[in-house]
Design brief:
It contains ten helices and three strands; from the N terminus they run βααβαααβααααα. With about 300 residues, it is an all-alpha fold. Helix 2 packs antiparallel against helix 3.
């Protein structure tokens, strides 16, 4: 796919987050600590769900998938950023940039569908509790996960199919620390107005549409519960508040980056940091700290790991 590109640009240069050496050292330490925390935290959630039989239910299956995607999404950009800051060479090859964009949009698309699946799971659990195990059976969970991956891959391929063969003859500086389509397209030596509209329609409107669908579904669940019993409303809201928080954290930066008509580089960079370093930590924390079963399962798994290390 890449050999047929007639581009003269073989690599792109990241402007990065700051030109100040002290600030770069701080950001390097900050990104390293947060990335290690992201990997360990989300991996622990995944392993807890896999090895604890008490968590073999649709809700935790979807949560484990979300943690895996959060970890993967962060891995797309953060290790490269850490490597560039530590070496001082803030570059990425043309092929590496395309690969980064591909996985960024693939994992982003998967996460969108997973959040919709988690909203469906909560709707069935709260509004149709007697039919929960019948509707959210293992086959349905597998179909939801497979559908999320398929839609994510289709979304990413559809984006790249129109831009990967663009001619690039310079400049080659990206005012960020990772590759994404808006900046990639702007560097092409061609009229890209139509492609920029396509990217906005494909990423921006899909993101906005999914966000509105999720918020509407949560409102519908709360209204349904209120009509049935006002006493259950606070319990339902407590259950959904974690989901709503995660949705706002994920979709807020995406909507701003793709839909805001007056982009500013400092704001874009801050939102990118939020997406890659903050949200992937908050997601498992939000779900685990508010969930008694998850906290108990983590304690059991931690005890098993410690006992196995202490046993000769």
């Amino acid at each position: 796919m890449y050999e047929t590109n007639d581009s003269e640009v073989s690599e792109f240069i990241f402007v990065g987050l700051s030109n100040s050496r002290p600030m770069q050292h701080f950001l390097l330490a900050f990104a390293t600590v947060f990335y290690v925390t992201i990997v360990l935290g989300n991996l622990f959630v995944v392993l807890t769900v896999i090895f604890d039989s008490h968590l073999h239910s649709p809700m935790y299956f979807l949560l484990a998938n979300l943690s895996f995607i959060d970890m993967s999404l962060s891995t797309v950009a953060v290790p490269k950023m850490i490597s560039n800051m530590s070496s001082g060479h803030k570059t990425i090859s043309f092929n590496g940039c395309v690969i980064q964009i591909f996985f960024l949009h693939s994992f982003g698309g998967v996460e969108m569908v997973l959040l919709i699946s988690m909203a469906l799971d909560r709707y069935v659990a709260i509004c149709k509790p007697l039919h929960y195990l019948t509707i959210m059976n293992p086959r349905m969970c597998a179909l939801l996960a497979a559908g999320a991956w398929m839609i994510g891959l289709i979304h990413s391929v559809a984006q790249l199919a129109f831009v990967v063969h663009l001619p690039f003859c310079g400049p080659n500086k990206i005012d960020s620390f990772y590759c994404d389509l808006p900046w990639f397209i702007k560097l092409a030596c061609a009229d890209t107005y139509g492609l920029e509209l396509m990217v906005t329609a494909n990423s921006g409107f899909i993101t906005m549409g999914t966000f509105i669908l999720l918020i509407a579904s949560y409102i519908y669940i709360l209204v349904t519960v209120r009509k049935r019993s006002s006493g259950d409303l606070s319990k339902a809201f407590s259950t959904l508040s974690a989901h709503i928080t995660v949705v706002l954290l994920f979709f807020g930066p995406c909507i701003f980056i793709y839909m805001w008509p007056f982009p500013t580089v400092p704001v874009d960079k801050f939102l990118a940091i939020l997406d890659f370093l903050i949200t992937p930590i908050l997601n498992p924390a939000i779900y685990t700290l508010r969930n008694k079963d998850m906290k108990m399962a983590m304690r059991r798994l931690s005890s098993q790991i410690l006992n196995s290390k202490m046993t000769p």
